[in-house]
Amino acid sequence: MEDLIAGSYRAAYTLALRLMGNPDDAAEATQEAYIRMVRGLKRFREVGAFPTWLFKIVSNVCMTEMRKRNRRELPVEIDTMDGAERLALGGETPPLDAEETAIGNLFWGELERSVRSLPDPYRSVVVLRDIQGLSGEETGEILGISPGAVKVRLHRARRKLKEDLADQFPEWATGTEEEGKRETA
Amino acid sequence: MNQCQDVERIIWTDGPDAAPQDHIDDCLSCRAESRRAADLQAALSGMRNRFAVAPIELESKIIAAVNRTRIDRARDIVSHPKFWRGAAVGAAAAAAAATAAIGVMRARRRIAGGAPIAAPEVA
């Protein structure tokens, strides 16, 4: 059990932090999620699906807590994000060669900040659907909304993220269009 | 209806792969939008492997909480009336089974040892 916790608690905490936006709340929610996990362990059968199962518990705990109390806005600085250490919980290699350079670190920092600055309903769909990779149905189930509502929120959230990143990285926002203009000239 | 607006809506809702490819091939603006959406999608899924630095004591707190929960669960099970009712029924059943087994063994021993079987009394 201790190995299981050691191998997963940072990912669980990060998910809680992204959903709740506050380190203290995230730590509490992570602890509560593991307690629920132990209580439900008897019902758990598919060992390979453990991370997804744990992340759903974490998400459920966070959403319940967020409904109960108003979220306190405490910005978390980028330097609390650590890309160097990774856990084998699935997922692809980060794209865009982002971690190779200072610009890369800046990009990840901005992206993290942009996600965190989204309003709760938008942030939760982006975190669950785009970052954690849950399906629209699973996301809707956790948030208590229909898959259609998930789509609507996702659309608005992604556009908002695009606008934020375009402000920070204008060359990213315009580069391909200029290339296109050059192509036609 | 503006086709580019529809395509952009699809790109940002269902993802760049869901957009009609023939329009993307012909329209520079939608192609650029599709690339941006693909970049953002890839970057967001890449965030899955970037972890926040957790508070130092979090791991030990979780382990302690989990161990407490397991002990509490065991205590709850043992202190629940149902557990003792079940235990009593189980003990009674075990005792009955043991008595029956002893009876059978004694009867077999008597038969094997040639013990006389009492003849029925005739009035």
Characterization of this structure:
- The complex is a heterodimer of chains A (185) and B (123).
- Chain A is an all-alpha fold.
- Helices cover 69% and strands 1% of the residues of chain A.
- Chain A contains nine helices and one strand; from the N terminus they run H-H-H-H-E-H-H-H-H-H.
- In chain A, helix 2 packs parallel to helix 4.
- The longest helix of chain A is centred in the C-terminal third of the chain and has 22 residues.
- Chain A starts with a helix and ends with a helix.
- Chain B has two domains: 47 residues, no CATH class; 54 residues.
- Chain B contains five helices and one strand, in the order αααβαα.
- The longest helix of chain B is centred in the C-terminal third of the chain and has 32 residues.
- Chains A and B meet through helix 1, helix 2, helix 3, strand 1 and helix 5 of A and helix 1, helix 3, strand 1 and helix 4 of B.
- Strand 1 of chain A pairs antiparallel with strand 1 of chain B.
The number of helical elements of chain A comes to 9
CATH architectural grouping of the largest domain in chain A: Orthogonal Bundle
Q: What amount of the residues of chain B lies in strands?
A: under 5%
Strand share of the residues of chain A? under 5%
Largest sheet of chain B: none
Average pLDDT of chain A: 77
Shape category of chain A: globular
Distance between the termini of chain B: 112 Å
CATH topology of the largest domain in chain A, anyone? Arc Repressor Mutant, subunit A
Give the low-confidence spans of chain B: none
CATH superfamily of the largest domain in chain A: Winged helix-like DNA-binding domain superfamily/Winged helix DNA-binding domain
Tags for this model:
heterodimer; A: 185 residues; mainly alpha; Rna Polymerase Sigma Factor, Chain: A; Arc Repressor Mutant, subunit A; 2 domains; 9 helices; B: 123 residues; 74% helix; 2% strand
